[in-house]
Every structure is written in C-alpha cells, then in structure tokens.
Amino acid sequence: MDALSEDLELLPATRRALGHRIAVAQRDGRAPSVVAAVVRGGEVVWEGSRTSAEGHGPDGNVQYRIGSITKTFTAVLVLRLRDEGLLGLGDPVEKYLPGTGVGEVTVGQLLAHTGGLAAETPGEWWERSSAALRPELSDVLGEQPFRHEPGRRHHYSNPGYTLLGSLVEAVRGKPWEEVLHAEVLEPLGLHRTSAQPQAPHAGGWAVHPWADVMMPEPLEDLGLMAAAGQLWSTTADLARFAVFLVRGDERVLSAETVREMRTAAAPPEPGAVDLGYGLGMQLMNNAGRRLAGHSGSLPGFVAGLWLSEADDVAAVVLANCTSGLPAATVAADLVTIVADAEPSFPQPWRPFGEADPVALELCGPWYWGTGAYALRLTADGLLELGALGATGRAARFRLEPDGSWTGLAGYYAGESLRAVRRPDGAVSHLDLGSFVFTREPYDAQAPVPGGVDPQGWRGIG
User: Fold this and answer.
1) pLDDT for 391
2) Is the pLDDT of residue 344 over 90?
3) Residue 213 CB coordination number (10 Å)
C-alpha cells in the first residue's frame, strides 16, 4: 500500500461525526442499543455504540440477529456450487428439488428475486411463529406460490431463499447450517456468526410506538426458513464479511464471483431509489454513491451492511428493536460520512511490468462508422473501450485462450471482440458482435457492411 494511504486512522472530526450519527439514530429510533463499525482499506477503523442501559455498552463481539443479511450468506453457498460446476444459474429448481410445484423457476431467478414467488409464506407470520407450522417446502410455498410470472419482474421473496437453502442441502447432502459453517464461516474466520445465539448476545425488544416502554420479542427458530434470515452475528464478523464481499477470498469465492454478486441481475422497481438487486445483494444509490449490501430485520432486531467499492469503505449497524431505527439507512450514512470527509487516495500510477504485445497492438483510436472510440489496456490486463465523443457504449473485455476478448458488463456483456487480420498479419479491423471497428472512419480497405462510397469523403459542391 502506498505511503499516502498507509495511515487508515480516521480524523477526530470524522470519528465525532460517526459517533454523533449513531447517537441520534439511537435516540430518535428509541432503540435499547445500537452498535456500529466502519471498514476502510480492509480494516476496521471505527467502532461505536449507544445504549439505554447504564454502564458498558455493546461492542464488536456482541451478537445481534441479522435477519435477511443471511440471504447474502446463502447466495455465497449457491455460487460456490455454481463455480464448482455442480449447478447452473439457468437450471430449473425442479432439477434439484423435484415436486415443489415451482420447478420452472431457475436458480438465478431465486437469487435475484425474479422467480415471481410470494414475498411471505401462507398462514401465520412466519418470523413470529413456530417453524413446526411449516415442516415441509409445501407448507412454505402454499397452494398458490406465485404472484408474478417467473422472470418478468423483481419481487422480493423469503420463500425463494428457503428453496435455495434446501437446494444447498440437496446438492451437498448436509444441513444448510453445517455447510455454511464449513465452507464460509470457518474459512473467513467468522467465529461469532451462528444460527443460534451465543453469549454475549443482545435480547430482542419491541418498543411501544406511543410510550417509552418495551417488551421482549419471542425468539423463534426459523426451521426451513433459516436460509432467509436465521443468522446471528457481530459487527466485527460482518466487517470481515464486507471485506470479503469486495475482495473475495479464493477459499470461498473469487473476486470475480463476488463482483458478479454486486452486479444487478434484476431491475429496480419503478420509482425506487435502489439500483436493483444482484445475486444475494441489494444495490442502492446513496447521495450519488453506488452501494451494495443488504438490510435485515426480524422481530426484536434490525441490521444494515453497505459497502462502496469505489471508496473502499463499508459500514455495519446492528440494533435490538423491532422497528424505529433504520439500520440500513444509518449504515449508508456512515459510509457517506467517511467517504466524503476523507476521500481515499488513488493508487499511484505505475507502468506495466510487462504488457501483452498483441493487446498493445489493439490500443488506440477506432471508429464504428463515424463514432470515435479508444481501446486502452488496463493494469489488470483488460481492454477498456470508451467513446471519445459525448455518447457511446463503454465496455471492458477479458482475454480468452483463443485470442478473442469477451465483454464483461453492459451492452457488450458476453459479446466477443476479435481482431481480424489481413494476409500480411496486420490488423484489418475489429469485429465486435458483428460491428466493424476500423482505424479510419469508414475505412475503404476494411469490409465495412454496405460498402464505402468509391468517391470517398467530400464537401458540398
């Protein structure tokens, strides 16, 4: 790390602003307690808490229930199966869980909440009732599991993640909790994250909406619904998890796969402030900053985890009240406070140690018709296409073993970029999904579709 960014310690004014934000949140949200942490550069740089109790407040080792942040953990397990070649995101659920009645829904649709399934289970409020009422998947799904046609829109579904937990169990042949511990929690060192509470842990409380009194919420094991919201964790563990969600860890998931999790797989709802939903991750625009993470709530608890990849900052907020304190909003605010007050230093420019001569040959200006573009070779070995004018499609491309390049995002995601050569070996043009890019606008020496007027460029005469 460069000397300019070695010192991760926050300035006193920033630390005070963070402390003030959670103090206001605890007071206004009337929460028995709130605990928070901020990560920058892969390290916890600030921790804080507020409590209504006298004496010692909670710290990064105290467990709170994290609700639907559990879904992100479940998504990690499913993507591990995908990366191992044990399933595909386009596979129908029926392939692994026959007889559910929702078999046409795909694994990827469940991850992105586009399967059209109901938001909740039939019958009693599942978060506050015994799991014994839902012993089978048929009890979770009910007689009419669909609210929308699969694949048509984003509709958040807790039963959908129950199916994903059962899918993990079916493929691994082990309970979801056991697989999670062995394949995610243990490798990442999340020793204070568990399906059941482990001391020290906070108690969950309901605070009366019109009086400053409260009562304890019941603590229910979620049974089959565990994969949708069962976990307990701490700010210290979730801070480590946030770092993983940015950088990846080859023992669990690669950086490329966690980037895929942070990429929108479902569009936002009309009028929503969010940016859609990835694979097990919510996406949000907060004050012009793109955040990825997840919110969570269960009776007695609210939670929020957000990260800004561009700023290399993440924040976690946990509180033990059923409602009132918007934990996810507060977490987003903590990210913004740090990123705005102390913007990270960019990495210093350095020349390549070694550059691919073929990739270098492709760099420089290209023209699609009369549109001017440039190809640049980035430090990570990707080709980056960008318009030189006001408009145009941008893309990044990864080199493939056969010498072609594959688009990674946007309009050209999955499309192939190929350098087409003349008999003498010189590059004639680029073929990008049938679009011809030439070194000169409408180069007469290249096979421009429709041909080039033989009289060439001319003025009005």
Assistant:
1) 80
2) no
3) 8
Cβ distance 245 to 261 under 8 Å? yes
- Classify strands 313-319 and 33-40 as parallel, antiparallel or unpaired: antiparallel
| Confidence category of residue 299, pLDDT binned at 50, 70, 90 | very high
> Mean pLDDT across the chain, nearest whole number?
93
The CA distance from 224 to 431, in Å, is 50
Mean per-residue pLDDT, 192-198 = 97
Looking at the DSSP bridge assignments, the partners of residue 216 are 205
C-alpha–C-alpha distance, residues 297 and 65, integer Å:
8
**What are the phi and psi torsion angles at 152 (to 5°)?**
-90, -30
Strand 371-377 versus strand 364-368 pairing type: antiparallel
Looking at residue 54, its amino acid is E
d(CA 262, CA 81): 18
pTM of the model: 0.88
DSSP-derived secondary structure for 398-459: EE-TTS-EEE-SGGGTT-EEEEEE-TTS-EEEEEETTEEEBSSTT-TTS--TT---TT-S--
Burial 288-327 (b: 16+ CB within 10 A, else e): ebebbbbbbbbbbbbbbbbbbbebbbbbbbbbbbbebbbb
Q: How far apart are CA 107 and CA 113, in angstroms?
A: 10
